[in-house]
Amino acid sequence: MAFGLSATGLEIKRLADIKPEIENVLRQRLGNSINLLPETVFGQIVGVFADREAEIWELIEDVYHSQYPDDAEGVSLYNAAAFNGIEIIDAAKSVQKNQLLFGDVGASIPINTQFSVDGNPDAKFKTRNTVILVAGLNAIQAINFAIAPDGGSFSLRHRGFVTSLIPYSATAADVQNALNALVRLSGVVVTGDFASGFTVEFDGADGLQPQDLLAVQTNTLTEESDPVLMTIAHDQVGEVQGIVDLEALETGPIDAPIGTLTVIDTPVSGLTSTINVESTTIGRNRETDVQFKARRKETLAVGGNATLEAIRSRILNLEGVTNAFIFENDTLETDGDGRPGKSYESVIDGGTTALIAETLWKSKPAGIRTHGVLTESVLDSQGVSRVIRFSRPTQVAIFLSLDLTIDPVEFPSNGALTAKNRVLSWGNALAIGQDVIVYPRLISQFADIPGILDVRVRIDKVPVSNTPGDPALDDNINILPFEVASFAESNTVVNAL
User: From CA 394, how far away is CA 485, in angstroms rounded?
Assistant: First the structure.
């Protein structure tokens, strides 16, 4: 058998081939009577050198296969695939925007100050920059009535949570208690009455930060049977003491549900508390070799730097980009979505405009236009300004109301908030063009919350009823390829019954 490179590829010598060869050479040089049994000195020498030569042949085989993406692994795989313009989708860290900081005025919160999620100490984040705390202001809102009522009741909504009914005879203390009973509120102070109006000051843990404007959920107030109009307005918009962006210490899909990133792991003089009031931009794990090979086979049509897959890979590797989808019009005519002939449109969720444009320019095929709603100028190596266009996905607001039938003994006290945070995290992680599937995907988010006996779902692209017991509305939501589902806290209500 011929060993080495040939027209059929590489054929290496194995230990079973090498050992007899060395033995034959020794017999030729030292005579046929030489003792080559394994326990002899010569037999041991043959074994040592045969093993070493076999390892060399195996190394040659590894080098040979490293040039072919189907057989290569690790860095060799990525280098080989790079000739086709395909790049590995790298790991990314989760990012928490607008983390609120509280403490002494003038306190300096340094970069790399660490926080973690309450109940999940492994979910650690660190500050990206230094922040100096200022005085801050409490948010103050005014609830006014056209005339003092003599009958009926009303209820208020704050960030999707609804108060109990507040009767026309309620005092400021009654309104205060109703608001402080809501999830995410505890320090509200209410003064006034129906005649002069109620003043709502967000104090304590709710103070020194902006607050969503309270909304009227229901209003049956009357004065001599005539409806009484209610209005709510900002008297003073809250101002934070300090606000900072965080990034996870480790890469991967590390989540911090709203209101849970509160543990200060790095003690800082003057820093007393912190909280996250926005959903986390979830990170990702590095693409595995198996996933990379599968993606390459599915998408590779021709080699080069400017394939759609190569462009998408580069965009996905940018910080803050959570998803990207690329539409191509390879005809000479404008397509039904307004893309000119020989153009492509990148629909990108997250990331900064300037960096996206720079990346698109470096990846763009010569003579092919970019298309999209947004434009950004990029200077090329010749000093010429080039216009790059791309689009953001259309945000499709999803309105969701959940009725949880619970076992009050087993259902945790924060169960409703946990369910709400779970569905918000899941919904806002849906990719561009990904439909909202109610059963089993949405419902499965509550699988490990004890005490839930049944779930009634009302979900739509338009506001749905938040009244417990109203009929279900649980059809899947169809999302078009250039759209992305958007779940907002204020549009999500969880009723525990």
Answer: 8
For helices 308-316 and 353-363, angle between their N-to-C axes, nearest 10 degrees: 150
Q: Quick one: pLDDT at residue 239?
A: 94
- Which contiguous run of DSSP H or E holds residue 350? strand 343-350
Helices (H) and strands (E) in the chain, counts: 8, 28
Closest CA to 12 of 57, 50, 70: 57
Q: Is the Cβ–Cβ distance between 312 and 345 less than 8 Å?
A: no
Q: What whole-number distance in Å separates Cα of residue 475 and Cα of residue 459?
A: 7
Tell me if the pTM is above 0.85. no
- What is 121-174 written as a DSSP string? EEEEEEESS-EE----B--EEEEEESS--SB-EEEEEETTEEPPPEETT--HHH
For 305-390, CATH gives 3.30.300
The SS3 assignment for 412 reads coil
Strand partners, 328: 344
Burial 141-168 (b: 16+ CB within 10 A, else e): bbbebeeebeebbbbbbbbbbbbeebeb
In eight-state DSSP terms, residue 353 is H
Domain coordinates in residue numbering, the chain? 4-65, 93-134+240-276, 140-236, 305-390, 394-496
Burial 1-34 (b: 16+ CB within 10 A, else e): eeeeeeeeeeebbeeebbbeebbeebeeeeeeee
**In the predicted model, is pLDDT for residue 303 greater than 50?**
no
387: three-class secondary structure by DSSP: strand
For residue 376, what is the enclosing H or E element?
strand 374-379
Which residues are within 8 A (CB) of 478 and not within 5 positions of it... i.e. 6 or more apart?
435
> Which amino acid is located at 35 in the chain?
N
Banded model confidence at residue 264, pLDDT cuts 50, 70, 90 = very high
